Amino acid sequence: MLAKRIIPCLDVRDGKVVKGVQFRNHEIVGDIVPLAEQYAKAGADELVFYDITASSDARVVDKSWVSRIAQVIDIPFCVAGGIKSVADAGRILEMGADKISINSPALTDPSLIDTLHDEFGQQCVVIGIDSFFNEETGRYQVYKFTGDETRTQQTTWQTTDWVKEVQQRGAGEIVLNCMNQDGVRQGYDVAQLKTVREVCNIPLIASGGAGEIQHFIDVFKQADVDGALAASVFHKGIINMDTLKATLIEAGLAIRERQVINKGT
Amino acid sequence: MQNIVIVNTGCANISSVRFALERLGVRVTVSAEHDVIQRADKVFLPGVGTASAAMRSIGEKNLTATLQQLQQPVLGICLGMQLMVASSEESRTGDIPCLSLMPGQVKKLNANGKRLPHMGWNTVTHTNSPLFKGIDQHSYFYFVHSFAVPDYPQTLARCDYGSTFSAAIGKDNFMGVQFHPERSGDAGAQLLTNFVNL
């Protein structure tokens, strides 16, 4: 059985893990490498590191932490933020990241997805999508430059259309960040994820809104996502990984438990 | 101390394989040189990307014969495993020849309607090969692929995703795993240890 993935997301600024609410008021959570190691040991199935300043800042960002993480953790990890070119992606992958996630640069130049696919293979091309439900129009809209509130823009893309477009261009996975829910811990946006799931034939990761264990059960059972990403519930110790996984298994979901290797046999 | 060499195929997961071995306390050399590879006690053949690109890279480095003549244990990882069989469908021009270290063909994974790529942690059942010593049946390993070697006589371990395919294969000194042991937590570390200790 293919397990549903639990994916802690670590927002990174200047080599420190930070967390804000709805993209604002970032507070420092801790040092990146020990936190990464701690999550891997706790039983996370994958980690995402999101450099929150990079995409909307023109400056060159120091990514040397990528290889320090690759040295210590033994689960897959993805790096997001500030990857604007094939050369940027190549450097991150060479440092030991398993996947790279792009968001705003793909909206600026969608052909970047095709190029990354052809150069590095579909398996490492993750597309991050920031999607906001507009109550006035009743539509899900894609936003870009969400890392910096002063530059955040609504694009002309409706979310499901962009999801179709990125798949056609060779994306290997989609992380759908439901902006209305981000950081508020009121549950994943199951309605939106179900809508996207219908048009998404590649792995789909839910992001935004996790606050309690039931939210994970709901999103896996109701929206059939492949993974669930969460930040503050893990950073703040609101949800314990072992308890979460045991509860998901009891709920009938395929979940990887922390392994115990029997060296004697 | 053993002399462990990772073949520099020019593919992207070389660092993660090297780091995983270094975590086990093993000294590792990454090389594309015939003499260095030939003298190794154990050889790793990593790979991500497409079979056609990897075979082209191996050809350009004149490593085809080098790899085919190795007598010591060789472990192919992911695409590196797929390169060990006779041919692969993963090419725009139809079947491309691989290294033929053992029989077999890489085919598009028959996921029977499940989503591709097959990405994530899946359970593996093994045939008690020394490669899986101390690893429980149904342990989870991390997979990322859309092509696979079907279940056949060289299969050492199986995985099911829509259909059953080879999670590990082996013939004589050549072994390969479809999953990424370097990214498979404790089970993956145990498998790498087993290989290094063969």
TrEMBL record, chain A:
<keyword id="KW-0028">Amino-acid biosynthesis</keyword>
<keyword id="KW-0368">Histidine biosynthesis</keyword>
<keyword id="KW-0963">Cytoplasm</keyword>
<dbReference type="InterPro" id="IPR004651">
    <property type="entry name" value="HisF"/>
</dbReference>
<dbReference type="GO" id="GO:0016829">
    <property type="term" value="F:lyase activity"/>
</dbReference>
<comment type="subunit">
    <text>Heterodimer of HisH and HisF.</text>
</comment>
<dbReference type="GO" id="GO:0000105">
    <property type="term" value="P:L-histidine biosynthetic process"/>
</dbReference>
<comment type="similarity">
    <text>Belongs to the HisA/HisF family.</text>
</comment>
<dbReference type="GO" id="GO:0000107">
    <property type="term" value="F:imidazoleglycerol-phosphate synthase activity"/>
</dbReference>
<comment type="function">
    <text>IGPS catalyzes the conversion of PRFAR and glutamine to IGP, AICAR and glutamate. The HisF subunit catalyzes the cyclization activity that produces IGP and AICAR from PRFAR using the ammonia provided by the HisH subunit.</text>
</comment>
<feature type="active site">
    <location>
        <position position="130"/>
    </location>
</feature>
<feature type="active site">
    <location>
        <position position="11"/>
    </location>
</feature>
<dbReference type="GO" id="GO:0005737">
    <property type="term" value="C:cytoplasm"/>
</dbReference>
<dbReference type="InterPro" id="IPR013785">
    <property type="entry name" value="Aldolase_TIM"/>
</dbReference>
<protein>
    <recommendedName>
        <fullName>Imidazole glycerol phosphate synthase subunit HisF</fullName>
        <ecNumber>4.3.2.10</ecNumber>
    </recommendedName>
</protein>
<dbReference type="Pfam" id="PF00977">
    <property type="entry name" value="His_biosynth"/>
</dbReference>
<dbReference type="InterPro" id="IPR011060">
    <property type="entry name" value="RibuloseP-bd_barrel"/>
</dbReference>
<dbReference type="InterPro" id="IPR050064">
    <property type="entry name" value="IGPS_HisA/HisF"/>
</dbReference>
<comment type="pathway">
    <text>Amino-acid biosynthesis; L-histidine biosynthesis; L-histidine from 5-phospho-alpha-D-ribose 1-diphosphate: step 5/9.</text>
</comment>
<dbReference type="InterPro" id="IPR006062">
    <property type="entry name" value="His_biosynth"/>
</dbReference>
<keyword id="KW-0456">Lyase</keyword>
TrEMBL record, chain B:
<dbReference type="InterPro" id="IPR010139">
    <property type="entry name" value="Imidazole-glycPsynth_HisH"/>
</dbReference>
<protein>
    <recommendedName>
        <fullName>Imidazole glycerol phosphate synthase subunit HisH</fullName>
        <ecNumber>4.3.2.10</ecNumber>
        <ecNumber>3.5.1.2</ecNumber>
    </recommendedName>
</protein>
<feature type="active site">
    <location>
        <position position="182"/>
    </location>
</feature>
<dbReference type="GO" id="GO:0016829">
    <property type="term" value="F:lyase activity"/>
</dbReference>
<dbReference type="GO" id="GO:0005737">
    <property type="term" value="C:cytoplasm"/>
</dbReference>
<comment type="function">
    <text>IGPS catalyzes the conversion of PRFAR and glutamine to IGP, AICAR and glutamate. The HisH subunit catalyzes the hydrolysis of glutamine to glutamate and ammonia as part of the synthesis of IGP and AICAR. The resulting ammonia molecule is channeled to the active site of HisF.</text>
</comment>
<keyword id="KW-0368">Histidine biosynthesis</keyword>
<feature type="domain" description="Glutamine amidotransferase">
    <location>
        <begin position="7"/>
        <end position="196"/>
    </location>
</feature>
<keyword id="KW-0963">Cytoplasm</keyword>
<keyword id="KW-0028">Amino-acid biosynthesis</keyword>
<feature type="active site" description="Nucleophile">
    <location>
        <position position="78"/>
    </location>
</feature>
<keyword id="KW-0378">Hydrolase</keyword>
<keyword id="KW-0456">Lyase</keyword>
<dbReference type="GO" id="GO:0004359">
    <property type="term" value="F:glutaminase activity"/>
</dbReference>
<dbReference type="GO" id="GO:0000105">
    <property type="term" value="P:L-histidine biosynthetic process"/>
</dbReference>
<dbReference type="InterPro" id="IPR017926">
    <property type="entry name" value="GATASE"/>
</dbReference>
<comment type="subunit">
    <text>Heterodimer of HisH and HisF.</text>
</comment>
<dbReference type="GO" id="GO:0000107">
    <property type="term" value="F:imidazoleglycerol-phosphate synthase activity"/>
</dbReference>
<feature type="active site">
    <location>
        <position position="180"/>
    </location>
</feature>
<dbReference type="Pfam" id="PF00117">
    <property type="entry name" value="GATase"/>
</dbReference>
<dbReference type="InterPro" id="IPR029062">
    <property type="entry name" value="Class_I_gatase-like"/>
</dbReference>
<keyword id="KW-0315">Glutamine amidotransferase</keyword>
